[in-house]
Design goal:
It contains 21 helices and 17 strands. With 567 residues, the protein is an alpha/beta fold.
Length: 567
């Protein structure tokens, strides 16, 4: 269908636990997509997130006393606890933060209705299930109230819910206001992630797995149930990559209507002189940290390698990253020093005092600190998987060791006590990144890397890796991305290939490095939201067309798009 014939919502609500709440990749999806949505239909795109900040000022949200003032007052009079403002991101979209705690008194009643109406099994729920579902229902109540307030029956309205955490909100709306078209996106199925994380072979046996049975086996019944039913009852169901679409078809028993790959906006990448200054500052800081930890002068020409992301030891390929570096260190003969950084949040206690003192003194130290491979103390140092593997591998961490590894286990928000740089201000100083993922529905980290012109290594078990492989002549020189073929059972082979790739990158000359960097930027430019937003246009068109005459309650098109009750 031609783009001009696609239906597009007059009002679009998008609900996610990560609206104004930085947790993982979904925050990046929504916060970068917002500017493009604002260009299409300014201030008719309203994001809804949990009000977890309360009295604490949020770095992501600026409250407004005037925005949606009339509706907000009406909502509060009727018992809805909301705050309205704008998300501090490009596009500055409208955000409604919802306090959902009052719904806990009705939790059992809500779960009973969800079982009766949709077959959602909440009895064995645990962990974050209650918070997620109560937030989702509170968000749905907000959408319903706003819909009636604006006379929503005269508009095309879509409510878009992201990930299992919001699935109950979709079901709530489907039951109470079926005239609202619904869309549901699973970025990663809860049961697929669990199968992979529990060491079971996901891909070779995918066709033999039954999602509901596996959910019972892995104690994931409640989360899987609400996710499966949201996918079944949504007017439009999407996921972010072809590999996850196959997972959805098998484990959720629903093939997505549209695959919506994750784009980005290039705003976060500095340009020109500022780029050079930030890169120099990041490299200097990373080398200073390495020098202070190990007690030597790190080479200014060292190849800086990094992995990052959510702390999922196997799924994100952190185990393979460390293993590959261990293989490389035992055979590497090159002159160029290689320093690898694991930028993965863990259960941090505090920044190391001894390391902090060395960094402040800025003196030369010729002796290493105890455990010269980690920058912070952890609450569970002896149980942490990354620490345990580094110890097991026995990295010498000596001045004359050509391959060194350093674990920075803190969220890089600019105040970690050691680097005190944000993630992007750290990433810019890296020479090459590696994300040898086993379970990665899309993969923002390698995409962010090439946006900075940093060559990256990933696998074809990630959505991003598959997207790269579908291009002509994929490879480091052509795309800035190396894609390793990974299966359930070839860990050693892929680890060796990763070690080979890092070694190759340490040995290439400057012209080839510049070529790879330029290729990386060109590839990243093809993944901007301006190229990917049409997948969402199709999604909303499908959702709106599936809301039939009986569900609409009124004819669309009577609304004056120039009038709005937002002000």
């Amino acid at each position: 269908m031609a783009e001009k014939n696609l239906l597009y919502p007059d009002y679009l609500f998008e609900v996610s636990w990560e609206v104004c709440n930085l947790v993982g990749g979904i925050y990046t999806v929504l916060s970068t997509k917002a500017r493009t949505l604002q260009k299409i239909n300014k201030d008719r795109n309203i994001f809804i997130g949990p009000d977890i900040w309360k009295a604490t000022p949020s770095p992501y949200f600026t409250e407004s006393k005037s925005l949606l003032k009339a509706w907000r007052n009406c909502a509060r009079e009727e018992g809805l606890k909301v705050r309205v403002g704008r998300w501090n991101i490009p596009g500055k979209p409208i955000v409604i933060l919802v306090d959902y705690k009052d719904l806990f008194t009705r939790r059992n009643e809500i779960y009973a209705h969800m079982w009766t109406d949709f077959g959602v099994k909440s009895l064995r729920a645990y962990g974050d299930y209650d918070d997620s579902c109560m937030f989702a229902c509170a968000a749905a109540q907000v959408i319903a109230h706003y819909y009636y307030y604006i006379g929503g029956e005269s508009y095309k309205v879509v409510a878009h819910f992201d990930e299992w955490q919001t699935g109950m909100g979709l079901l709530y709306l489907r039951h109470t206001i079926p005239a609202i078209a619904t869309a549901f996106t699973t970025h990663a199925t809860s049961i697929g992630r669990s199968i992979a994380g529990n060491g079971k072979p996901l891909y070779g046996y995918l066709s033999k797995y039954y999602g509901t049975q596996m959910a019972e086996e892995l104690n994931m019944e409640a989360k899987h149930s609400v996710e499966r039913q949201a996918a079944q009852f949504a007017d439009a169901f999407t996921t972010v990559s072809d590999i996850t679409a196959m997972e959805c078809a098998q484990l959720l028993e629903k093939m997505p209507d549209v695959v919506t790959p994750n784009g980005f906006e290039p705003d976060f990448v500095p340009k020109g002189k500022l780029y050079d200054e930030k890169r120099a500052a990041a490299r200097a800081k990373l080398l200073q940290v390495a020098s202070a930890l190990i007690g030597y002068n790190a080479s200014k020409s060292a190849l800086l390698v990094a992995t990052s992301g959510r702390n999922e030891f196997k799924n994100k390929g952190i185990d393979m990253f460390v293993d590959a570096l261990n293989r490389l260190r035992m055979r590497y003969k090159g002159e160029r020093e290689i320093i690898a950084f694991v930028l993965v949040p863990a259960w941090v206690d505090k920044a190391r005092t001894d390391l902090s003192e060395r960094l402040i003194n800025e003196k030369f130290y010729s002796s290493p600190l105890p455990e010269p491979y980690i920058t912070h103390t952890l609450h569970n140092m002896n149980e942490d998987n990354i620490v345990s593997q580094i110890r097991y591998c026995g990295f010498p961490q000596k001045p004359d060791s050509k391959v060194k590894i350093i674990f920075i286990p803190s969220y890089l928000t600019g105040n970690d006590g050691i680097l005190n740089f944000t993630y992007y201000d750290t990433l810019i100083g890296i020479d090459v990144t590696a994300f040898p993922s086993y379970y990665e529905p899309w993969g923002y980290t390698p995409l962010e890397s090439i946006a900075f012109g940093i060559p990256t290594v990933t696998t074809d078990l990630s959505g991003f890796g598959i997207w790269i492989k579908n291009k002509n002549n994929p490879g480091l020189e052509e795309t800035g991305v190396a894609v390793l073929h990974r299966t359930d059972f070839n860990f050693v082979e892929v680890s060796e290939s990763l070690a080979d790739t890092i070694e190759r990158l340490a040995l290439i000359d400057k012209p080839v490095r510049l070529q790879m960097s330029q290729s990386a930027r060109r590839t990243a430019s093809k993944a901007q939201w301006s190229h990917f937003i049409d997948y969402y246009r199709r999604t909303y068109d499908i959702a709106l067309r599936r809301v039939d005459n009986e569900r609409r309650q009124a004819t669309w098109g009577n609304a004056d798009k120039n009038s709005s009750k937002i002000a």
